[in-house]
Amino acid sequence: MTRPATRPAARPTGPRAGGNRASADRLARLLNLVPYLLARPGIEIAEAAGDLGVTERQLREDLELLWVCGLPGYGPGDLIDMAFDGDRVTITYDAGIDRPLRLTPDEALALVVALRMLAETPGVANREAVERALAKIENAAGDLVGTPVEVRLQADGRRVEQLRAAVGRGRALRITYYTPARDETTERVIDPLRMLMVGGRAYVEAWCRRAEEVRLFRADRIDAVVELDEPAVVPPQARPHDLTEGVFRPSPDLPLITLRIGRGERWITEYYPCERVERGDGDQWLVSLRVTDLGWARRFVLGLGPGVAVVAPAELADQVRAQAVAALEAYASPDGAPSGDPAGSASPR
């Protein structure tokens, strides 16, 4: 007997369902569960629960969660599928998770280096989780972790180290900061709370005396930093940001844009918080998301290429069209200037 066509809603996970450690343990269990069941079609749930060291109830909850996991698209042919015959279960579609995760030596070493750097970063939350993960990988990697490794930091590496040291000493900082959305550079005094790594980028979270609120400052956009001879004084009302869903937090007061995307651009829905995703004609989708401003949206759309079209707002479509035309004219002109521009400027008109 196969399961009902209607997929059950996944139960919430996270801090309210047992904390970060419980979530991490469950993720590891789920990644191993599919290969385990593939190797034992028709196994009884009670036997599987005993092998996996969980209760039957927990295993059934894990199976319910697997029903809503799968590949981008998340349609009937994209999600992990299974069939039940009484108290027996069989995986009928594995969505590519057909074997336990195995790291190559290079992958294991890269994780060890990254986790060691993260563990040494001041202000990192859940340091115990980082150290537990590091210990497990080092134990599995064996002698590999003793291999000499040369770590080359990005161009802003010295700036990150300078910021880390200042945060560790509890000093106030005067920074020169570039904001690309407004194309402006400002000078401000900040009282650091902590250093963060989010999405592979380093941030300083601090009380900004200029804005009089807690702000996040990307390290690679800090053009200059001076450590002041005064301690950082963070007001009692200052609260760290909740970054569990990333740095950007969409809100109704931000501009809403709608894009028509093809199959090759569906990754957008995985990396950006979308308010609405609808199937269009053929392989096309209509995607609506909030953006900080239309200037950022224009650069974003132009970087995506011809597989994306702006549906709304009309102002954004006009901006994208104008800059694309100006770029094409610049390529067509021998001297690199748009045709009809006697000043030789390649800026959009």
Automatic annotation (TrEMBL):
Please report the stretch or stretches of sequence annotated as the PafC HTH domain. Answer: 25-138
Where is the WYL domain positioned along the sequence? 160-225
Q: Which InterPro entries match?
A: CBASS_pafABC_assoc_protein (IPR051534), PafC-like (IPR028349), PafC_HTH (IPR043839), WCX_dom (IPR057727), WYL_dom (IPR026881)
Cleaved signal peptide residues: none
Listed Low complexity bias regions: 1-19
Q: Name one Pfam family in it.
A: WYL
Annotated region Disordered: the residues are 1-22
> Which residue range or ranges hold the WCX domain?
258-328
Q: Which domain of life is it from?
A: Bacteria
Name used for this protein in its record: YafY family protein
Name its species.
Micromonospora harpali
